[in-house]
Design brief:
This protein is of the alpha+beta class. 26% of the residues lie in helices and 39% in strands.
Length: 145
């Protein structure tokens, strides 16, 4: 892994740790690489519904965040050079997560000049597929878009 990507992954981890919403949802950056990000979300009762089922909104937020971080592996996050935002998120709920931590893996499907498409899959520790989503993210150079 090249030094610039390694440095950017360190910044991605710091962004996840510092963002109030991701802190509230107990997300943590696990690993990343070129076009790839993996984030864990620890189970918390306050993010669940009846019967300790993880709320769909928490899963959607995890998918959005993971897709965005996969996109950021292609640009320098937390620098004044770039600005990014989610354009769209699609979520498919496949199975319930009951009282357990979940893991999201985001992979870039296509990177255009500004628009990045990512596939995100959410699993539990046993690798059971719980949800799948696509994230459309836009990153622009400040002063260019």
């Amino acid at each position: 892994m090249d030094e610039a990507l390694q440095k950017n992954l360190g910044r991605i981890s710091k962004v996840i740790d510092a963002m109030p919403f991701t802190k509230h949802l107990a997300m943590e950056f696990v690993e990343g690489g070129e076009g790839f990000a993996r984030i864990r979300m620890r189970y918390q009762d306050e993010n669940s519904t009846a019967g300790k089922a993880l709320h769909g909104g928490a899963l959607a937020s995890l998918i959005d965040t993971t897709g965005a971080m996969a996109a950021w592996t292609t640009a320098q996050i937390a620098t004044p050079k770039y600005f990014g935002s989610t354009v769209g998120v699609n979520v498919n709920y496949l199975s319930g997560a009951i009282g357990e931590d979940v893991f999201a893996e985001g992979r870039i499907l296509k990177r255009g000049k500004e628009i990045i498409y990512a596939d995100v899959r959410v699993t539990n520790e046993a690798d059971k597929l719980l949800a799948q989503g696509t994230v459309v993210y836009r990153i622009v150079e400040v002063g260019q878009g």
